[in-house]
Structure formats: C-alpha cells, structure tokens
Specification:
Chain lengths: 120, 132
C-alpha cells in the first residue's frame, strides 16, 4: 500500500501505472455486470425510482461507489497521460489543472445530486 | 541535464507510416477512452434531467433518438476499450516469451476485432432494431 500512497504532489510513472492498472482491473469486472443488468432491463417500461430500487441492493451500491471512485482515478490518469504525451510543455500544466478542477466539480455535483435525491 | 536537440517538434506525417495492427488498436484504445469520458458527461446531464425535472422520465427518454445515439456510442466504445484494455492488462502481466508472443500475435488481435464487431452489431440491434 505504501507503494501507492506516498504522494508528494506528482505521480511518478510507476505509481500512476499501478493506480491505473488496479482501477482498470476493478472496472473490468464491474462493467460487464452493469451491461448485463442494463441490457436485461426494459427501460421503456420502468421508471428510474423502481429501477434504482431493484438494482441497488446494499452490496451492489457499495460496489458501484467503489466503481465510481475507480472510474474517476482511471479517467484522471488516462487523460493525464494523453495530455503529457501530446500537449506542448508550456500548456500541459494549464490543461491538466483545468481537467482536475473539472473532475472535482463533477464529483461535487454528483454528491450534491445524491443529497438532493436522498433528501438530506 | 538532457537538452532536446533543436528543430522540435518534427511534425512527421502520420499518414506516411505503415502502422502494425496492434499500434492501431492501442491508439484507438486511447481515443475510445476519450469518447467514454465525453459520453459520461452526456449521461450525467441526462441523470440531472431525470432526477430534477418532473416531466422527464427514464421511459420517455429511452426512446429518444439522441439518447439512443449516446447509449449506442457509449456501449460500442466501451466494448472496444474493454477488449483492448484486457489485451493490455494480459500483455503486461504475462511477460514470459511464449505467452507474451501469443497475446500480441496478429491472430489474437483479429479475433478481438471480430468479437468487437459482433458485440457492436448486437448493441446496434438492441437500440435501433429491436426497439422499433
């Protein structure tokens, strides 16, 4: 675990690779299950509340929460790699910073939505 | 400290290269990753609409053309990203020569593309043919 967590502001290549790999591994198992559920649900005959009630048993909710976190990590490292590879040096920090802010806002927005839905 | 030689970037003409199949799969893995992030935005916008707007329901949006486009692009990109991602993960973990060679062989890549095409056809059928 120490190999993943020691973070002094910038991921070294090997740490980013490990975080990317582990999140990918998790999502590799999560998405097929999601696909199975989605393609077996008639979304035209069901409303979202019922769908969520039947789908989100406690275990699946926990797995989905971990999946969302894994997705954020995976998306961050993925785009970061693309930005570092293809953008000119002086533009990388700006775009990466913007993307980080964008992901943070997205996470906050999802949290807000969850509070709205569960009336907290 | 290493200083780059001058005359950079070189702006090589990408169309004049003959890339191996695995190189094309790799770059498409990146590109589909970007598509997935963009379609995730679309889904989050849709989620907001369904949860916060009283007249928008899951049933009513499922038949809309734009949502079907979004969903089909998402699932087709995801299946490609998943399959090539699986190939990357296997190639990175099974590094013994014979196994590595078979994972990166042309036959496996062609089979991967075949599986992806089949999945894409099924996905397209689900959204555009069966629903009608």
């Amino acid at each position: 675990m120490n190999k993943l967590i020691k973070f002094n502001g910038q991921f070294s290549g090997i740490k980013a690779y490990r975080w990317q790999s582990y999140s990918a591994l998790y999502l590799m198992f999560y998405f097929p299950y999601l696909a199975y559920v989605f393609f077996n649900t008639k979304t035209t005959e069901i409303n979202l509340a019922e769908f969520i009630n039947t789908l989100f048993t406690p275990i699946f909710s926990l797995l989905s929460l971990i999946a969302i976190m894994a997705l954020f990590i995976h998306a961050w490292i993925g785009v970061r790699d693309i930005a570092i590879d293809y953008l000119p040096d002086h533009k990388v920090r700006f775009w990466l910073g913007s993307y980080w802010i964008f992901l943070a806002l997205l996470a906050l927005d999802l949290l807000w939505l969850a509070f709205q839905v569960f009336n907290i | 400290m290493y200083q780059f030689p001058g005359n950079r970037p070189r702006y090589l003409s990408l169309t004049s290269f003959k890339f191996p199949l695995n190189a094309k799969l790799s770059i498409l893995h990146r590109i589909t990753g970007l598509f997935l992030i963009i379609s995730l935005l679309g889904f989050i916008a849709l989620l907001h609409l369904i949860l916060l707007h009283p007249s928008v329901t899951l049933a009513s949006v499922s038949e809309h053309c734009i949502i079907k486009c979004l969903s089909s692009v998402f699932w087709i990109s995801l299946s490609f990203h998943w399959l090539t991602g699986l190939r990357h993960i296997l190639a990175e973990h099974f590094t013994q020569p014979t196994l590595y060679k078979s994972i990166n062989s042309k036959a496996v890549s062609v089979a991967l593309l075949g599986v992806w095409l089949l999945t894409s056809i099924l996905i397209w059928r689900y959204f555009w043919v069966d629903a009608l």
